[in-house]
Design a protein that fits this description.
homohexamer; globular
Chain lengths: 112, 112, 112, 112, 112, 112
Amino acid sequence: MTKSYKEDVAAVDKRVGALFKAAPKTMTPYSQLVKAASADGALDSKVKELMALSISVAIRCDDCIVFHLRAALNHGASREEVIETISVAIEMGGGPSVVYGGRAFAALEELS
Amino acid sequence: MTKSYKEDVAAVDKRVGALFKAAPKTMTPYSQLVKAASADGALDSKVKELMALSISVAIRCDDCIVFHLRAALNHGASREEVIETISVAIEMGGGPSVVYGGRAFAALEELS
Amino acid sequence: MTKSYKEDVAAVDKRVGALFKAAPKTMTPYSQLVKAASADGALDSKVKELMALSISVAIRCDDCIVFHLRAALNHGASREEVIETISVAIEMGGGPSVVYGGRAFAALEELS
Amino acid sequence: MTKSYKEDVAAVDKRVGALFKAAPKTMTPYSQLVKAASADGALDSKVKELMALSISVAIRCDDCIVFHLRAALNHGASREEVIETISVAIEMGGGPSVVYGGRAFAALEELS
Amino acid sequence: MTKSYKEDVAAVDKRVGALFKAAPKTMTPYSQLVKAASADGALDSKVKELMALSISVAIRCDDCIVFHLRAALNHGASREEVIETISVAIEMGGGPSVVYGGRAFAALEELS
Amino acid sequence: MTKSYKEDVAAVDKRVGALFKAAPKTMTPYSQLVKAASADGALDSKVKELMALSISVAIRCDDCIVFHLRAALNHGASREEVIETISVAIEMGGGPSVVYGGRAFAALEELS
């Protein structure tokens, strides 16, 4: 993770885009899975992206954090909702979620 | 995990209760952390428990699944909301989340 | 995990089948992803199922172990190939992979 | 995990013993690694087994918990030392370490 | 992780400090939990920080490694004790713990 | 992870080499374990290194990815075999394996 989260998320987009072209048979159904799982339903997309963010922090996945944070913000997540999402991850992940939550929060401050 | 999720969650309660008595200095602030992280706020408690459930499935934690599923149901989560929560975990966890999502769904059918 | 791995894998099938019916929009593309990822290609299906088994042991996923072990055996994996797969998982996972490798090996002895 | 941790650890011993016979080329150096890593040194074996137990709880590995708990007790670990070890795991693992710490504590009560 | 571990740990401090200000209701009890879990008791604080370091290596958490390595050194941990801690993590984590143990060792050489 | 994977893998070599000198009693049997687990057998070394790569992606270990990717390429793995290996990891790891698979693929493009 660099000092600029916008650059990080752009790098993720570029790498995943390249992988998509190289492995379309796997990545096409994966994209459909993502679309189905994150669509508005009983829970709206914003909540689902925050959920994905909470998992990202809990499992310590830098690239996932910036990716799903951006998606949550694009769906209208507020600063406070992101902070509460990080708090749930800390409940479920302890110290490692504190340090990765710190990364998510730093990204939030820059991206929003 | 046995065939009865009600017994599973009762066993979790019993074990965690015993640990609480044995390690009150650690468990008391942990309980306060849980209370703060799962309280109604910008996101309501139901969503937060579903988030904790999504993490539980993604990290493959049986005891966590039954614990947070019960909490989500107690906060009024619907069957469909639980299923969509499992779907987000599958997006974030692939095959292992499918099999643990299967466990969560089986528990849902019994607990609800 | 019970004493009978055949019962375990039957229980996985049942739980995942029920989840499939409850969440078809997510599970249908997931199934297509699995089909694409495990199809014969530059690597054959047997090797891919052994790979999935090595991951299953390394991440300590009981249900995944029995599921992918059965698939590998169905694609003609030999006893020795399964044992070497467990060995790679141990290289990558240390002690926890030894104990879960022990579970995989016990399942192998019963299933084959 | 059954109701009897003694049976659990006996089952681990049996499974790992069978794997050792099936994969001696991998398991022999692994055993030497374990011997070297857990020998008395700047830190004594008891502390090292408690460390292994803390990792076992943090990564949610049932079989590892009973195995390293027994080893720690065999090296003279006290009840209070085990409880403090579980507390460090909770600091590092949050809720999932609480429920697996609860399993470790239940095993402690039975094994000691 | 940059080439300078002192900068890394300073960055962790800064990010966690900012998160603390943003989420005081969650972070305050978490801090109390840390204080309780890492206090001198049946095991001394040095051993507990080494334990937290062993978990950090085993779960591959860069920020956790530099944080708990510094804490262990501040509590008087010797070079040899840190190396033995890394060895226990390798026993429990295999190859990934070797490469993250390599990071912890490089940090040790710089921080001490 | 920097922009150059050759520099990344060189840094891994350097760090692990330094750890080997500092902890020879643990690292010597670990090396023997690696040699045994990755030797030609019922499965050839190329497949075993691809297996180790699939685990590396699934568990999100950057240093492991470049290390085992290089080893797989040195054993003659083709571009397509690496891509299919990443696909199996995605089946088993979902979104986080997509982003780490993207890293593995970017390294492949540079290293090959």
